[in-house]
Design brief:
Helix content is 80%, strand content 0%. The relative contact order is 0.11. By secondary structure, the chain is an all-alpha fold.
Length: 196
């Protein structure tokens, strides 16, 4: 605990953020099992698919955070957060294609909402929309790559993603302005412009 407190604040936040993925992955497995029960589908998946890659992603996140590599490499926390959430999200999307086709869209809805929760306070309108568009694009590309037939549940996911992503973007913009204030907003906008 003493060693943790001696780390830079950005490293501490990164470590806690990486560790928060553990309950999220357990929740996603529970969600998958619950959906199978609700839809009365007898489907079993290899638990290593739910354990191996997430463990690697979490471990990488802990190593990167512990050594405070984003600060050393001059990567903004905003960009690092996007990379981490999109890495986990991409694996969840790929994992979803191993699920029964009538379930994966509903599964994605819940996990998209969970992923967007990690972005509530630090993202503005544009950043939230970019994240949403990335998720929609990755899902579309994966659907095409895995030759996945788009069903009603998938259409529901695309609709939910667009609707919830846009409404969250407006709410995040409001919160971002409230937190950073008008003066901080101009500075944050100029920093974001330099990132792009």
């Amino acid at each position: 605990m003493q060693r943790f407190k001696s780390l830079p604040k950005s490293a501490q936040i990164g470590i806690l953020f990486s560790l928060s993925a553990i309950p999220c992955w357990l929740l996603s497995y529970f969600l998958f099992s619950t959906f199978c029960d609700i839809f009365d589908i007898d489907f079993h998946t290899d638990f290593l698919l739910w354990l191996g890659p997430p463990f690697i992603l979490i471990s990488l996140g802990l190593i990167v955070s512990y050594f405070d590599l984003p600060r050393r490499w001059n990567i903004r926390p905003f960009v690092m957060t996007c990379i981490v959430v999109l890495s986990h999200g991409t694996w969840v999307l790929i994992l979803g294609f191993f699920l029964p086709s009538e379930l994966n869209g509903y599964f994605y809805i819940f996990l998209f909402a969970l992923g967007l929760k990690f972005l509530d306070l630090g993202f503005d309108f544009r950043s939230t929309m970019i994240f949403t568009l990335c998720i929609l694009t990755i899902t579309s590309v994966c659907s095409w790559a895995f030759n996945h037939q788009i069903g009603p549940d998938d259409m529901m996911f695309f609709f939910f993603c667009a609707f919830y992503g846009s409404t969250s973007a407006f709410i995040n913009e409001f919160n971002f302005r409230r937190i950073h204030g008008r003066k901080g907003l101009k500075q944050a906008d100029s920093e974001r412009a330099r990132e792009v």
